[in-house]
Task: structure prediction
Amino acid sequence: MTKVPWYQEPVTDENEILSSRVRLARNIKKYPFRRKLSAASATEMVSEATQAVISASHFFINLDMQSLGKTEQTVFLEKHIVSPEFINGNLPKGLLICDNQSISVMLNEEDHVRIQAIKPGEDLTSAFETAGQIDDLIEERVEFAFHSDYGYLTACPTNTGTGLRASYMIHLPCLSKSDLPTTVLPQITKFGVAIRGIYGEGTAPMGSIYQISNQNTLGKSEQDIILGLQNVTQSVIEKERQARQNLLTTRKSYIEDIVHRAYGILTNARLISAKEAMDLLSDIRLGYITGLLEKPKPTKRIYQIMMEIQPGHLQRNVGTEMTEQERDITRARYLREIFEK
Result:
């Protein structure tokens, strides 16, 4: 297994799909679901599940969530290793990850066990195979809650069945400048697919980056879910490319201006918010993909830069918590250094 994190792979800079992710929701049969789980039972469940995961595969690292500070937990959120719900949960919980952070297991999030596999670019099938292998190994050591008619039982009914949540992280800069909210979103929801913000349900998009995922799992096979998501996503990508071509044909100077203004601001700003920086980096990425921006590419992938300008990453790298203004100053300095290299 390569030790390079998925967000450092070249493919994340090459087209609309930045990453493919599969999550499997599971609950251990002998314990109540989380809403009825006592602190003592949660501790026992996390301990048992941790041992099952570690014995299932040697490459997992067990992280002590109690010893992780707020900043480090925020970094894991910004890397899509954990969810907001996991961070905010009050009951005992556990987190296991592999070296390159492409596979992780959250213990006691919404469900007892959440297995996650992330792959760079369009590689949903491989992500599913990886998550499935870990799932099979864990299930050899604990008994999951399973019903012969309904499949895997989960805290949220929309996950019952396969327990599979497949998603793409996708960059849609041209649709974001045109008709994504009014036309594309209503169309795709008819096919059992949802588009959410950059960190999933309840979060807003930043830098024209969205998560597109299946909504239901009951009554569908894993293959049907993945194929359906692939088909709908390809349709969205086609609409993004059509919108891009239309802008390049009818308003090329407008796009050129946006791209070069973004580069100018990022290489000169002394104070910049996360939202503004994300929007500008989105325009920069569009400039590189279309060939409108002929400046040298930075040494880091654009999405990696997007992660590293978030509050958790900035504060971890500096080694202390900062005020919003201090983060804006640090973020601007970091961006100038990145694009000057």
Remarks:
- The mean pLDDT is 92.
- DSSP finds twelve helices and ten strands in the chain.
